[in-house]
Design brief:
The chain has three domains: 148 residues, Nucleotidyltransferase, domain 5; 152 residues, 2-Layer Sandwich (Nucleotidyltransferase, domain 5); 205 residues, DHBP synthase (Alpha-Beta Complex), CATH 3.90.870. The two termini are 43 Å apart. Helix 6 crosses helix 14, helix 7 packs antiparallel against helix 11 and helix 9 packs across helix 11. The model has no long low-confidence stretch (mean pLDDT 96). It has 21 helices and 21 strands. It is an alpha/beta fold and 578 residues long. The strands form four sheets. The chain has a nine-stranded mixed sheet with strand order 13-21-20-14-15-19-16-18-17, with helices on both faces.
Length: 578
């Protein structure tokens, strides 16, 4: 049985294909179109999924869409009518896309795919819930979903048992933790639905003392929080419910400062505002989790929704809540909801027994040695070929140990926003200059941004103050933990300003080649840790194809590209115009 899930028309359009209850292919449209957070119909992602099994759309048993457009349209109309005439401009701006695209999902799917079968729709937060429960290792778990907004819901919790999910309570628009985070992201001069994670990183530079950070008490006035974690935003500080702007002038008055111009440097108070936001997010988040535990009495927790990517909060879950085990969908945002709708159809609607646990993210396109070889020769790229995997691993480890920046392109592309050792840029964590080199010469991004350490899973507790046993979300780079103080000086380029790191753990089972590279680097350095950051530059999606990889290297300060069984040195190809 084949079921295809689709998400699109808002942000992070994607497609996911399951066969007999197992994931066989999944990817976001942005990786093919090269438009970051591409929201268009994911025709390239769909075609990749179908091609991966050599089937056509009409071989599918069902197609699922990740939300219910008519219910969402009802909410949009309600907003416009409730706040008219303030909504007049946004009404004129948004209606064409609704009439031409968002209300024509069935027509668009059938037309784009020449599909004649059934199309099923489920609610947005149910898609999120299915994406984190049905592929988890838990037969029974509490489920929490938090994001900006689906149809009406912004936060929900419930319980999953075997093949069924029961969402017990929800918080509705316009009260939204995700939109609060986005509003402050905009206030601090960053792009909404793109840079919220930057604010999470920036928060570590701010004052994290609730008593002495004035912005914490200022910002608390914008949200009323109850003991059970339910909350309500004071809408006088925001404009997102009637405008395409996120915050009002009253928020500026509340925070006693002007919004930051994106072209101006970050000041102390900007960092303190980011810290205040993160503290308030965690206040609400942990009240929700404790309440959910009391209501469900489950020691297992499954998380999804865009806010489940808040790795700073995630790393504190086991310490600050009663939950003993956690599982987070690595593609927690809207991109992962395409997977959720496919599994909801298979497990809940069709009542097939669960037979799969997601323990990897490698579901995207891959390129054979022959395909890479053909690409290099066709484009007259200078390269050398490794004799075998041992030579590849040894040479790569030596290059990194000698402080070269190495791009790593191997196997199937990752599913979700993190590079996990398939489309990665690697560097030496012992080099105190590596962070600045990566930010300035390679990634072309803000200097405050941290880089993630990747570590052999069985060694994580030696270097990090992490939960033991290490939760599976750490395999997906979804947990921030303190780096042990005696280690921080040894690993300057992966130790964030507050002494933490967003670690990725790797087992030999999950990624044998990447694991062996860590072990080869350990032979030279004494530590099984590397810097791992996504293979892209600021403003672009992670690379997908050999062309993307080579183009990215030649436009940056990356020294070497290890692409399948080939080594490409940037200096040898500087005459190329890419």
């Amino acid at each position: 049985m084949y079921i295809l899930g689709i998400s699109c028309y808002y942000h992070d359009a994607s497609a996911a294909l399951i066969r007999d209850g197992k994931i066989v292919a999944a990817a976001q449209e942005e990786r093919f179109s090269r438009i970051k957070h591409d929201m268009s119909f994911p025709i390239n992602a769909v075609n990749f999924c179908l091609k991966s099994l050599n089937i056509t759309a009409n071989d599918l048993d069902y197609i699922g869409f990740y939300e219910k457009p008519l219910i969402k349209f009802e909410r949009i109309l309600f907003q416009h009518l409730s706040f008219f005439p303030l909504t007049y401009k946004t009404f004129l701006k948004t209606m064409p896309s609704w009439i031409n695209q968002k209300l024509r999902i069935i027509t668009n799917i059938k037309k784009n795919l020449e599909y004649k079968g059934d199309i099923l729709f489920i609610q947005h937060h149910l898609s999120h819930a299915a994406s984190c429960f049905f592929v988890s290792p838990f037969e029974k778990a509490a489920i929490v979903t938090i994001d900006g907004v689906g149809e009406w819901t912004t936060t929900s919790y419930g319980k999953g048992i075997n093949n069924q999910i029961n969402l017990l309570q929800e918080i509705k628009f316009p009260s939204s933790l995700g939109l609060l985070y986005s509003a402050i992201t905009a206030f601090l001069g960053f792009k909404v639905n793109n840079s919220e994670y930057k604010i999470m990183g920036l928060s570590s530079y701010g004052n994290k003392n609730k008593k002495s950070n004035p912005y914490y008490n200022y910002l608390k006035k914008a949200i009323k929080i109850k003991k059970d974690g339910s909350f309500k935003l004071d809408l006088k500080y925001f404009k997102f419910h009637y405008s395409d702007k996120m915050f009002s002038k009253k928020l500026c008055d509340l925070l006693k400062t002007k919004p930051r111009n994106p072209n101006r440097p970050l000041s102390r108070h900007h960092k303190d505002i980011a810290a205040a936001l993160q503290m308030i997010y965690e206040d609400v988040f942990f009240k929700i989790l404790n309440h959910v535990y009391e209501k469900t009495l489950c020691s297992n927790l499954s998380l999804a929704g865009g806010c489940a990517l808040n790795s700073v909060a995630n790393g504190k879950i086991i310490r600050k809540s009663p939950f003993k085990k956690i599982w987070i969908q690595p593609a927690a945002g809207d991109g992962g909801a395409s997977l959720g709708v496919a599994y909801f159809i298979y497990n809940s609607i069709l009542n097939h027994k669960r037979n799969y646990v997601q323990d990897t993210c490698f579901f995207g396109p891959e390129f054979s040695t022959g395909q890479v070889h053909e690409f290099l020769d066709k484009n007259k790229i200078h390269y050398s070929k490794f004799k075998n995997k041992n030579e590849l691993l040894k040479k790569t480890a030596e290059l990194i140990y000698d402080n070269n920046i190495v791009a790593w392109f191997q196997g199937k592309m990752e599913w979700g926003p993190r590079a996990l050792g398939s489309r990665s840029i690697l560097a030496n964590p012992l080099n105190p200059e590596a962070k600045d080199i990566l930010n300035n010469k390679v990634k072309h991004r803000e200097s405050f941004r941290p880089f993630a350490p990747v570590v052999c899973k069985e060694d994580a507790a030696e270097y990090f103050e992490c939960d033991e046993p290490l939760p599976n979300p750490a395999d997906f780079m979804l947990m921030v933990y303190p780096i042990k103080k005696k280690i921080q000086k040894i690993l300057p380029s992966v130790t964030h300003v507050d002494g933490t790191g967003r670690l990725q753990s790797v087992s030999r089972k999950s990624n044998p080649l990447f694991y062996d590279l860590l072990r080869e680097f350990e032979k030279l350095s004494g530590i099984p840790i590397l810097i791992n950051t996504s293979f892209n530059i600021r403003g672009e999606p992670i690379v997908c194809t050999p062309y993307d990889a080579y183009r990215c290297m030649m436009g940056t300060g990356i020294d070497y590209l290890i692409i399948e069984n080939f080594l490409v040195k940037r200096e040898d190809n500087l005459q190329d115009k890419w």
